[in-house]
Amino acid sequence: MHSKLRALPSTEDSGVGFGGATRVVLDEFEYHRYARKNYSEIYPIIERGGQLVVLSTTDRFNIDSGFKELYIAAKAGDNNFYPIFYPYDVLPERSQQWYDNLDLTLADKECRYPRTEAEALETTKTHAFFDKTALEDMKADLLSFPPLRHELSDKYRNLVRIYRLPVVGKKYCLFTDPSDGKEDPHAIMVIDAVTGEQVAESHGKIPAEEVAQIHDDLVRLYNNAFNSYEINATAGGHFDSKIQALNTPNQCHRLKTDGKLDYKQYGWWTGSAIKDKAVRKLEEAIRFRQIILHSKECLDEFIQFMRPEGEAPQKPRGGHDDYVDACGRVLLLREYMVTGGMTIVSFKYG
Questions:
Q1: What is the CATH number for 304?
Q2: Distance CA 119, CA 115 (A)
Q3: What InterPro entries does the record point to (predicted)?
């Protein structure tokens, strides 16, 4: 054997000249000053058949690190890494009593000895935007609501997940954030219009025309659900053309920035004003338990969604906000639903 083991410092040029390296280990990558530059030099060599292992604790003062970007993208399936998180108690001697006896502030404990991924990825200058307790409570109930076997799940290779079957007479709302099937996944959210419970979803990277077909199928399955979709960018245009060709029923008219509907057009052009209103409506619904979610992927995305100090709420670098967009807008869409079949009458007694 003619194997070589080389140890290199994390300098600006340490990734240059790796040549035929078959395995590279980047230790404490969070703290590499030239992390992204080193990675860009190393990865093409490893991609040809080697193995790259990236290890690190996390730095709570570093919001925009190469390590966090890689890890979050790995969780979303957007790179070839397999994410593994080890909590502080992976070592048998680190018991709860050991943790409680540490002479550190709670913030320092969470930084140096994280118990969860959320603690490891959070920074001192960011705050979780959504109520973590509410989200964790919903995650605890996931085993009680596994996706049901359904013909649409089979038809679309499990891109569609059904959590509750439609009930005759019930009303449902559906909103789609389409994609072109390349960098970002699409997200379709279907909720019970009265309870706010998620009953179905679709999520994945497929062309906009295919997303439109799923949208149409779910609308029709859920009693002609009141529905709309984003028309931004090329993907939105392709999606809109397909929806109109399918003659999808019960579409909401276009929402304008003043909150009124444009009765001449369909599909929502969601600029910053509408997007901000939708995400804040979603935050309120989660905080007051006015929405029930059954999707692990959706809840994971919400937990990662952050509010950096002095900035607008946003996804972390390397992450996604497709579920956030679809879920916030389906709640906004619900406000424009004509319920029908009910008349409120007031009487004066005496």
A1: 3.30.420.240
A2: 7
A3: P-loop_NTPase
The separation between CA 285 and the C-alpha centre of its own chain, rounded to angstroms, equals 17
Q: How confident is the model at residue 213 (pLDDT cuts 50, 70, 90)?
A: very high
Rg (CA), the chain: 24
How far separated are the first and last CA of the chain, in Å rounded? 101
Question: Residues 171, 196: one domain?
Answer: yes
Q: Are strands 186-192 and 51-54 parallel, antiparallel or unpaired?
A: unpaired
The helix (run of H) or strand (run of E) holding residue 188 is strand 186-192
Instruction: Give burial (CB, 10 Å; 0-12/13-18/19+) of 199.
Output: buried
Count the alpha carbons within 13 Å of 297 in the hemisphere toward its beta carbon: 25
In a domain, 107, yes or no: yes
Domain membership of residue 155 as a residue range: 129-334
Spatial distance between the Cα atoms of 201 and 191, rounded to a whole number of angstroms: 9
Residues 225 and 105 in one domain: no
Structural domains counted in the chain: 2
β-strand partners of 174: 190, 227
- Looking at the DSSP bridge assignments, the partners of residue 268 are 230
16-53: per-residue pLDDT in tens? Answer: 666 667 888 889 888 888 888 888 888 877 777 788 89
CA gap 25, 36 in Å, rounded: 15
* Identity of residue 273: A
Both 109 and 142 in a single domain?
Answer: no
How far apart, in whole angstroms, are the C-alpha atoms of residue 187 and residue 178?
Answer: 7
